[in-house]
């Protein structure tokens, strides 16, 4: 069967009444779960697996996929409103989304996030449909050397995440990198900085750090400012209105990051979180007004939201066409496929075209319904910010605590959350930016592991980085990305000198 | 001698770097590694110390607004410690008296502590919010949360 | 905030209604004094890992079948206790000495992790109740690799150990590494010279396919699709006899290639220490029933698991033997703590 026939079969499957009902159900549940603390797509899918047992496979998988991208779609809500990202892909969303909401424009921020998510989701599904078979070889083309180079490229962005002092940004990043070394080292099985505590063996979870540095630290600031009515004009808080300039500002990042996010999603191990960060940084670099970023920039919100949804579709490439799960979430998705008697992999497209193409085609419908479900709810969500400060603070704390507790069901992680909340607050007081910390935490682990994998494979020879073309080009880009801002800075200084 | 805030902070950071580095030298070695587990920690430790020294001599680049963040009245420090204390109590009690009770008590007392006096509103939130969450997690998603002393 | 919880609750209840809820089980079981044992409260099965992994899946599937087929008349809840590769969950169970309502699911890391010095509890601190599942290791190479069987691979590894890189998901001293070491040792390879890298998140298959590494040490099920697609070749599996199933039956065992060694990725249920004999007997019987049930057979097939039932006594002996074997290997590698 040619793939055109397959695509047609897929659309037939996806547009059956039953499939449409279940995709709506899936995205609805997903978007709610994405908003709730601690329930990321992983646990949502995992707990649903036993329930789908015995269902028609295509329908069940269409629903499960809906839960997955629905959760990423909904994950932005708590990030924007409470600075408390419920899923890791939504951390970068808070950088500009939360300031925007604090300026009394919560409705607008949520609307931008929804539209960007929808665009990222839809464009990437088109890409998925056109390129899935072709891209399967790209998905596995990255060896350890190339991953190392990719992570390095991401890290060169630290300087552009600083607010003022570059040295402080670098110190933040080194600290984030240090935290990631806690736990058992994968390459040797050696314990590092565990102090004999079994709770530290697997290292600290990303959400513990993110919720600590962002949500709990923000709670401290909110406690201090609880008496001022700082959410500027709450009058229009629920308004979804976007003016022409907003739409124009969004269009660039939405186009770019639909592609970039998708590609990064295709690479196993990169995923929505890394995609959202890289997009954010990329957009900031590109912007003529980088100083607006972090203060409620439309572009800074649209970029990561587009990218994380696009990456979610991208992650289906290795999953469906190779049977390789690129992340914890897709690993659980793989489990869902297996329970239903469907084995994702190179044969899926020919053996079960109705499932392969059906799941993909259903994502169009799913994304449209996500938009339809989310937009009308925005005014109600935005009103959350009208809850009196003391009560809101209590709720944000509880929200973060459940979020962390539901990962491991271990109170140790809650103490860590409090600790990182204190660290985050101190960092604020002394003007150390948190984003470089979290970026180094995300990229650091893979940077170290892939470097050491590469060197083990090559028996210690650095030539592995030169022989690998992908690695070499990425290293070159990393160098450019590192040098470029320096040159810009120098030229600026020179201009100043000549002017004087 | 320590005139600027940067200098004070950098000394603390050097101390952290030194402790971390001390830990790095105590990581046991693995016989077959080409790049062993201690290489990165040692690098990071040195890097932190070097960067902190740079910070020591760096010009103070903080804006007035950033500096103002540190002016916290004594009373407010008490508030922050109070909230931290309530969080600690929450963690300690969570697995003992259960999710619903702990969360309800926390929401009520934390709001009260922060000056919220509408007892009806906070009472209702304190009861409804944890109950709805508990019901969703345990009954609908079969994810067990600590039930504690309550019978369900 | 209440505002969005209501639709959430509604949505989830809709979903459950659509999928068929299974939460109607009653809690009416009675406690028996001495002789007969029946659960007097709801049973908790702990998966010492997060949602979605092998332990979690086993626990949830077993709980589902036990309740739906009415093998156990009462409520069974699955709890996740993640951390330390299992150590956090084990220390949680260790608090419930003698409690017959706390069970947990476990597998070979129960042997590896204590030996690697990462848990103060080992299998002797608990009551093995019944093993239910067996899985086996497979060693895969790319389709265009020069090795046709395990012996050719091991010959090359004897000649030039630095030329072959083995990849697995776990860190050295744990499962993917040790299953390869165990077979290689039996084939006469110097196991201290094996070059092993660990790659998380399914990175192992990626690295095998793109040629970064040479051999992927993994579970049998992970290889099937790639074999079907003609991308990889399985040089050997670690079962006693050939496996059954479409592609699986073509995988040669290490044994038939003259390497007299096997490795079983067993999975079963434990209880806390000092469980009363009546309770052990009760659960043995129930897990036997589970293992024999058609519903669980279907699940085994979907996940590519094999049946391996051991009762409490057999299980204990089996685990002691396993530990001794692994201990010897780790000693030789110098990794034992």
TrEMBL record, chain A:
Keywords: Membrane, Transmembrane, Transmembrane helix
Domain DUF112 residue range list: 20-439
A Pfam short name: TctA
Protein biosynthesis found in the keyword field: no
UniProt cross-references to InterPro entries, sorted A to Z: DUF112_TM
Coiled coil: none
Record-annotated membrane-spanning stretches: 20-46, 58-74, 110-132, 138-159, 166-184, 204-224, 259-282, 322-343, 355-381, 387-407, 414-443, 470-487
Protein name: Putative tricarboxylic transport membrane protein
Organism of origin: Bhargavaea ginsengi
From TrEMBL, chain B:
Coiled-coil ranges (or none): none
Domain of life: Bacteria
Listed transmembrane segments: 39-57, 77-93, 99-116, 123-145
The entry's keywords: Membrane, Transmembrane, Transmembrane helix
Domain DUF1468: 9-146
InterPro entries: DUF1468
Name the UniProt record assigns to this protein: Putative tricarboxylic transport membrane protein
Organism from which the protein derives: Bhargavaea ginsengi
TrEMBL record, chain C:
Gene3D superfamilies: Bordetella uptake gene, domain 1 (3.40.190.150), Periplasmic binding protein-like II (3.40.190.10)
Family matches, as SUPFAM superfamilies: Periplasmic binding protein-like II
UniProt-listed InterPro entries: BUG, Bug_dom1
CDD domains in the cross-refs: PBP2_Bug_TTT (cd07012)
Signal peptide residue numbers: 1-20
Keywords: Signal
Superkingdom of source: Bacteria
Family note: Belongs to the UPF0065 (bug) family.
Record-given protein name: Putative tricarboxylic transport membrane protein
Naturally occurring in which organism (per UniProt): Bhargavaea ginsengi
């Amino acid at each position: 069967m040619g793939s055109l026939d397959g695509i047609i079969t897929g659309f037939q499957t996806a547009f059956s009444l039953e499939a449409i009902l279940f995709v709506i159900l899936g995205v609805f549940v997903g978007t709610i779960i994405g908003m709730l603390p601690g329930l990321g797509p992983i646990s949502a899918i995992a707990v649903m697996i036993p329930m789908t047992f015995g269902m028609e496979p295509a329908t069940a998988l269409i629903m499960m996929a809906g839960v997955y991208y629905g959760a990423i779609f909904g994950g932005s809500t708590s990030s924007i409103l409470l600075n408390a990202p419920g899923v890791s892909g939504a951390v970068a969303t808070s950088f500009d989304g939360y300031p925007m909401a604090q300026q009394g424009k919560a409705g607008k921020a949520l609307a931008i996030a929804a539209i960007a998510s929808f665009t990222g989701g839809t464009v990437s599904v088109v890409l998925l449909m056109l390129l899935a078979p072709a891209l399967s070889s790209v998905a596995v083309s990255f060896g350890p050397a190339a991953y190392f180079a990719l992570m390095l490229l991401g890290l060169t962005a630290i300087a552009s995440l600083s607010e003022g002092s570059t040295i402080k940004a670098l110190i933040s990043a080194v600290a984030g990198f240090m935290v990631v070394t806690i736990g058992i080292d994968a390459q040797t099985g050696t314990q590092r900085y565990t102090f004999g505590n079994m709770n530290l063996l697997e290292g600290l979870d990303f959400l513990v750090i993110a919720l600590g540095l962002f949500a709990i630290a923000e709670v401290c600031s909110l406690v201090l400012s609880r008496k001022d009515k700082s959410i500027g004009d709450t009058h229009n808080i629920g308004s979804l209105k976007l003016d022409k300039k907003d739409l124009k500002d969004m269009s660039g990042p939405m186009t770019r990051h639909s592609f970039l996010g998708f590609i990064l999603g295709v690479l196993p191990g990169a995923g929505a979180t890394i995609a959202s960060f890289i997009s954010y940084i990329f957009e900031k670099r590109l912007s003529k007004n980088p100083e607006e970023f972090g203060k409620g920039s439309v572009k800074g919100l649209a970029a990561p939201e587009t990218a994380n949804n696009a990456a979610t579709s991208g992650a289906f490439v290795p999953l469906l066409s190779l049977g390789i799960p690129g992340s914890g979430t897709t690993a659980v998705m793989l489990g869902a496929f297996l329970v239903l008697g469907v084995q994702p992999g190179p044969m899926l497209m020919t053996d079960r075209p109705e499932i392969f193409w059906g799941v993909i085609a259903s994502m169009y419908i799913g994304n449209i319904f996500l938009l339809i479900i989310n937009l009308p709810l925005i005014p109600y969500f935005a009103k959350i910010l009208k809850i009196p400060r003391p009560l809101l603070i209590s709720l944000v704390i509880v929200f973060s605590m459940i979020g962390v507790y539901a990962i491991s069901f271990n109170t140790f992680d809650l103490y860590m959350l409090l600790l990182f909340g204190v660290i985050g607050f101190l960092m604020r007081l002394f003007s150390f930016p948190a984003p470089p910390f979290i970026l180094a935490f995300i990229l650091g682990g893979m940077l170290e592991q892939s470097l050491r994998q590469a060197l083990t494979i090559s028996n210690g020879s650095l030539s592995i980085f030169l022989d690998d073309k992908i690695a070499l080009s990425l290293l070159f880009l990393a160098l450019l990305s590192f040098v470029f801002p320096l040159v810009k800075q120098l030229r600026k200084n020179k201009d100043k000198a000549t002017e004087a | 001698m320590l005139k600027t805030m940067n200098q004070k902070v950098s000394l603390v950071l050097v101390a952290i770097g030194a402790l971390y580095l001390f830990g790095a030298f105590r990581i046991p070695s693995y016989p077959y590694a080409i790049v062993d587990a201690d290489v990165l920690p040692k690098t990071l430790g040195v890097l932190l110390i070097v960067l902190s020294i740079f910070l020591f001599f760096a010009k103070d680049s903080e804006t007035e607004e950033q500096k103002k963040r540190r002016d916290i009245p004594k009373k407010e420090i008490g508030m922050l410690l109070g909230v931290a204390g309530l969080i600690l109590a929450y963690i300690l009690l969570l697995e003992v008296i259960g999710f619903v009770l702990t969360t309800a008590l926390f929401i009520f007392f934390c709001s009260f502590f922060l000056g919220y006096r509408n007892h009806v509103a906070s009472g209702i939130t304190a009861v409804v919010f944890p109950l709805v969450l508990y019901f969703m997690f345990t009954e609908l998603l079969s994810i067990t949360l600590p039930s504690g002393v309550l019978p369900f | 905030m209440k505002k969005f919880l209501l639709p959430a609750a509604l949505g989830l209840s809709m979903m459950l209604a659509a999928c068929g809820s299974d939460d109607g089980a009653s809690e009416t079981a009675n406690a028996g004094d001495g002789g007969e044992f029946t659960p007097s409260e709801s049973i908790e099965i702990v998966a010492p890992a997060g949602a979605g992994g092998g332990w979690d899946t086993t626990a949830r599937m077993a709980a589902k079948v036990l309740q739906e087929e009415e093998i156990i008349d009462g409520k069974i809840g699955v709890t996740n206790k993640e951390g330390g590769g299992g150590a956090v969950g084990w220390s949680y169970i260790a608090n419930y000495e003698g409690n017959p309502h706390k069970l947990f699911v476990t597998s070979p890391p129960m042997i590896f992790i204590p030996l690697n010095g990462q848990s103060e509890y080992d299998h002797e601190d608990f009551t093995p109740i019944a093993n239910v599942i067996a899985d086996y290791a497979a060693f895969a190479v790319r389709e265009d690799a020069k090795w046709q069987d395990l012996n050719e691979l091991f010959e090359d590894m004897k000649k030039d150990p630095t030329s072959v890189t083995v990849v697995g998901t776990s860190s050295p001293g744990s499962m993917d590494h040790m299953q390869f070491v165990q077979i290689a040792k039996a084939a006469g390879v110097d196991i201290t010279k094996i070059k092993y890298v660990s790659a998380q998140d399914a990175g192992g298959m990626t690295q095998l396919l793109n040629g970064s590494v040479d051999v992927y040490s993994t579970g049998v099920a992970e290889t099937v699709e790639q074999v079907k697609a003609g991308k990889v070749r399985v040089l050997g599996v670690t079962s006693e006899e050939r496996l059954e199933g479409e592609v699986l039956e073509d995988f040669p065992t290490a044994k038939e290639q003259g390497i007299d060694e096997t490795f079983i990725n067993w999975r079963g249920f434990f209880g806390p220490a000092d469980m009363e004999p009546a309770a052990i007997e009760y659960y043995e019987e129930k897990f036997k029933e589970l293992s024999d049930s058609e519903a669980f057979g279907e699940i085994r097939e979907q996940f590519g698991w094999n049946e391996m039932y051991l009762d409490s006594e057999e299980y204990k002996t089996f685990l002691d033997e396993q530990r001794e074997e692994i201990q010897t290997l780790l000693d030789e590698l110098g990794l034992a703590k």
